[in-house]
Amino acid sequence: MKNHKGFTLIEIMVVVIILGLLAGLVLPRFLGQEDKAKVETSKVQISSLGSALDAFKLDNGFYPTTDQGLEALIKKPETGRIPAKWREGGYLKPSRIPKDPWGTPYLYFSPGNERNEYEIISYGADGQQGGEGKDADIESWNME
User: Fold this and answer.
1) Which of 55, 65, 79, 134 has an alpha carbon within 20 to 30 A of 110's alpha carbon?
2) Where are the domains positioned within the chain?
3) Under 8 Å CB-to-CB from 64, ≥6 apart: which residues?
4) What is the per-residue pLDDT across 109-128, written as a single tens digit (0 to 9) for each?
5) Residue 115 to residues 19, 136, 139: CA-CA distances in angstroms?
6) pTM score, whole prediction
7) CATH H-level superfamily of 35-139
């Protein structure tokens, strides 16, 4: 038996139990961070879209309408109020409208609510209006 090298069943079981305990302690912390990171990413994207909308307004004197949508930032609108000084190449780099971190398109309204000229909204992880925590709506006019 002295010449046999390897691990005994008990040694392997002890290692598996230790790894299971570590995973039970560490994984929940990482999973919670992923949700927070997605919320923060959504806020950054909404802020970036807001900056692009402000640049659009500076060039043209108005925000794109709800019907024109965020697409007006990458392609010159052909309906509604046509921008006379639309920036060649658009207002976003890369030239695409991002989806929120949960894979859902952002909602855009212009005019916005009574306090704002536009609104950009993500409905969060559940994709439904309302909610709390990771499911809470993220709104351009109400970001903390």
Assistant:
1) 134
2) 35-139
3) 53, 56, 70, 72, 73, 77, 108, 110
4) 998 887 889 999 999 988 88
5) 53, 21, 13
6) 0.77
7) Glycoprotein, Type 4 Pilin (3.30.700.10)
